[in-house]
């Protein structure tokens, strides 16, 4: 079906939308801005309308000659019943939660698998492994992929602990999109550590991931493809060097998403141009190893730290990262020579190839 016209459903989740925002959406005047990988969305404000990733993908699908339409999951069983009736050739999966619960993201794709529906991006296994940062880090260590030493704690119970040393960064083990990460996340002594762990557990009811803080450059590697054919796109760096002195050089929530903050205005992402070939190769090889270790497919992003001594540390891997045209993944695809529409088309082709290959394998096994 690759190269032919397809019915493609854009599956996304909306939750906790206030009446004013809903009215704007119905009137065609707003909607919810997309949110990065896993962040909880906020109602639209009356500002110049910026297209969401969902709208941009919809436009790209039309340009590719397909027939896109939207399916919304609102956290109610009725929306799951509607999804079960989906007659699309492929689902472009943009969900990040169910009913606002990020930990149920994997349940949505597991439901798609049970229904026998084709979809883009990571399966439930990969989403689970990526979302639980402590498990992901143990898998990285098994595969010889460098990641900061860490401990995890929940309600006074130590679930895992390396022999770690300050400074440390403390964050929710199950949240993504920089939720729960701010200037107070980096701690330098036991008192600050205990206070931050308590904050994480009270605010998010999540185990606290206590990780050695790695000074260095924040580098993102977008990956396209699956299994042995996955390829790393040109590397992108989030430049944190202009943050005020004394501010931790981390990708906090305000750096990523709070447009009115000083931190957001002083930081920017751009293609990393000044890396020598050996460093670029090590970063790319590390990203590819992490991508495969967590069984990501079609597309993903691996976040790394490049230490001053040249060591590469994987911080986390993100299945189904934000695809807005102004964000890092699309930026990397553009640097690789792909237009936004071509990038979306490539993701479609990768997903359809997986299903077609699986069908051929199954057919061969039956003869």
List the helices and strands and how they pair.
Elements: E1 7-13, H1 19-26, H2 53-63, E2 67-73, H3 77-84, E3 90-93, H4 105-115, H5 124-131, H6 133-142, E4 150-154, E5 157-161, E6 168-172, E7 186-187, H7 190-204, E8 208-212, E9 217-224, E10 231-232, E11 236-239, H8 253-257, H9 262-266, E12 268-271, H10 277-293, E13 299-306, E14 312-319, H11 328-335, H12 340-366
Parallel strand pairs: 1-2, 1-3
Antiparallel strand pairs: 4-5, 4-8, 6-7, 6-8, 9-10, 9-11, 9-13, 11-12, 13-14
CATH class of the largest domain: Alpha Beta
Q: What is the strand content?
A: 15-25%
Write the CATH architecture name of the largest domain: 2-Layer Sandwich
User: Could you give me the name of the CATH homologous superfamily of the largest domain?
Assistant: ATP-grasp fold, B domain
Query: Low-confidence segments, ≥5 residues, pLDDT <50?
Result: 18-46
**Overall number of domains:** 3
Strand/helix succession: EHHEHEHHHEEEEHEEEEHHEHEEHH
Shape: globular
Record field, number of beta strands: 14
CATH names the topology of the largest domain as: D-amino Acid Aminotransferase, Chain A, domain 1
Mean pLDDT: 87
Assembly context of the chains: single chain
Biggest sheet: strands, sense, closure? 6 strands, antiparallel
